[in-house]
Specification:
Number of strands: 35
Structural class: alpha+beta
CATH topology of the largest domain: TIM Barrel
Number of domains: 3
Low-confidence stretches: 1-28
Oligomer: single chain
Helix content: 10-25%
Largest sheet: 8 strands, parallel
Radius of gyration: 25 Å
Length: about 550
């Protein structure tokens, strides 16, 4: 081996060619920082994979700081002006959905500046480029922070009046959102520009403010040192992840340290350190994350944070978990333990199944061969389709993950095999048979007579064992094949599975369990501490009687 772990930690682009039989694979390290003008993944439509019901406060959105500085060079301002290399087209293609635009009010127009430096673009250029992108990609939304910059010069009207002249222009303002919701859903915003007001005065064209009134913002742009900056960044990430309210978060990775680091110099450190944190918290909400010189993989992982959660892959044959033999990187099954070598991350964008324990990807190197973990490279032998039948099929050979010869032992091997729909090829992505405990350490329990869901002292019986399927969102009881059902009367029962939204659930980073039907959370009624205490649906509030732990 070549010591991939050491190489992967550096986040510096390198290429390594590996010959596997007749296949030639190119492997890339993760890129957190980049001053390339065009080295990007094509994420033109990444928002199309998100549900319309997603609130802006629930999303993780990559953005750029001083987004127009791609027009200048590192000579300007001794390197303190330039913060981006990609033009608007490349930023949008890469997946950037937040622009930071600084406009000087001059001659009743908005030339774009960074401080006193003119960037040879006008606000009209920003709008035209954004409109063009949205016309071709109507599933997306672009947020534009508009900030007044530098000293006003030779104007006959206010900043707001000039702003509204752009908005009222039939061509320039045609995609601008004109809503009045501080936390709109993605469905309301698709195909729109959302102006975030960071200027004096108000306008109906910019209902949401880039301020502490509408966002929690971290922008420690001139820290004393890099340690202080990364502490600010990580604290804001943690705050966003644990806040169960609809607060919206903006986290600026950008900054400079006077006489020590230009924005580019600091970005090399902050992007890498922030990316380390993000890669280990892809199951959390991160908010708007704004960077200088963002690398393509930093952007990609921010996008991925919207698409996936960590989960187990559980055998439908023996309820053991897909597991990694750390010594050999071979994939096997083992009793579910919750260890990181049994946790997986499915990326809807790339169709890769990655282990957070090693950052390697599940790899079907050869038809009929063993499953291994290998450095992620994007080849078809690392792309997987999770079928609703329960099979997991690779795109290189069209074969399915197979528990070899129905072996029921710990350490049983897993191979690729022609898909046959037998039980040893049935898997579900989610949480294996586990108990769900509440704030009083009692277990979520099914009354077998009434099918009502309640709390009871933990016993380990099947009516206290549960599975969660990430694909379908269903929570099933170990006592039968019924699904947890949020009834219209506000109570929670077990009912025959039918695929409706009232049987689909999201496990939030706050540990709340939220219904996709009414967006209410599983709630222990009035903090009742007794056996038989009822469980109901209630507005999510992140109180202790709505927090749940999945335990072996």
């Amino acid at each position: 081996m070549i010591g991939f772990n050491k190489i992967f930690k550096k986040y510096i682009l390198y290429t390594l060619t590996i010959a596997l039989g007749l296949n030639i694979i190119t492997v890339y390290a993760k890129v957190s920082f980049s001053d390339s003008t065009s080295d990007v993944y094509d994420n033109s439509n990444w928002m199309s994979k998100l549900p319309d019901t997603s609130l802006i406060s629930e999303l993780s959105i990559p953005g750029t700081h001083d987004s127009t500085t791609f027009t200048t060079t590192m000579i300007a301002g001794a390197g303190y002006v330039k913060t981006q290399s990609m033009d608007f087209h490349a930023q949008f293609k890469a997946g950037i959905r937040f622009l930071d635009i600084r406009a000087r009010h001059s001659n009743d127009s908005f030339p774009i500046h960074h401080g006193n430096y003119y960037l040879h673009k006008n606000f009209a250029d920003v709008l035209r480029n954004t409109n063009s992108f949205l016309s071709n990609n109507p599933s997306e939304v672009i947020f534009i922070r508009l900030k007044e910059e530098s000293t006003p010069d030779n104007n006959s009207r206010s900043f707001v009046e000039t702003f509204e002249s752009y908005m009222k222009n039939v061509d320039l303002g045609r995609h601008v959102w004109r809503g009045s919701n501080k936390n709109p859903s993605l469905g309301e915003l698709r195909g729109k520009i959302v102006i975030l007001d960071d200027f004096d005065g108000s306008s109906s064209y910019a209902y949401i403010e880039h301020s502490k009134n509408d966002f929690s913002i971290q922008d420690n742009y001139n820290p004393d040192n890099g340690v202080d900056k990364i502490k600010s960044i990580k604290k804001h990430f943690a705050d966003a992840a644990t806040d169960s309210s609809n607060n919206k978060y903006i986290n600026y990775l950008s900054g400079y340290i006077t006489a020590i680091y230009t924005p580019k110099g600091l970005a090399k450190q902050m992007n890498s350190k922030s990316h380390d944190y993000i890669a280990n918290h892809l199951d959390k909400r991160l908010g708007f994350v704004i960077a200088d010189f963002p690398g393509k993989d930093l952007i990609q992982d921010l996008i991925n944070a919207n698409n996936s959660r960590l989960f187990n892959v559980v055998s439908g044959f023996n309820n053991k978990c897909l597991d990694i033999d750390v010594a050999s990187s071979n994939v096997q099954v083992w009793d579910c333990s919750g260890n990181t070598n049994q946790q997986w991350h499915y990326d809807l964008q790339t169709a890769q199944i990655r282990s957070p324990a090693s950052n390697y990807c599940l790899d079907a190197a050869a038809p009929g061969g063993n499953l291994y973990m290998s450095p992620c490279h994007g080849g078809a032998n690392q792309k997987w389709d999770l079928l609703l039948s329960g099979e997991i099929k690779d795109r290189a050979h069209g074969q399915c993950i197979d528990l070899y010869q129905f072996n029921d032992s710990n350490g049983a091997n897993v191979k690729m095999h022609e898909c046959n729909n037998l039980k040893n090829q049935k898997w579900y992505a989610g949480k294996g048979y586990k108990k769900i405990t509440g704030y009083n350490n009692k277990c979520l329990d099914v009354d077998e007579n009434s099918s009502n869901v309640q709390m009871w002292d933990c016993s380990g019986w099947p009516n206290q064992r549960w599975t969660y399927n990430m694909l379908t969102g269903e929570i099933k009881s170990g006592a039968n094949d019924k699904c947890l059902d949020a009834s219209s009367n506000g109570n929670v029962y077990m009912y025959k599975c039918h695929g409706g939204d009232n049987q689909r659930w999201d496990i939030l980073p706050t540990t709340e369990i939220r219904s996709r039907a009414n967006r209410q959370c599983l709630d222990l009624f009035e903090f009742n501490d007794s056996d038989g205490a009822n469980v109901q649906m209630y507005n999510c509030n992140n109180r202790k009687n709505q927090r749940w732990a999945w335990k072996q």
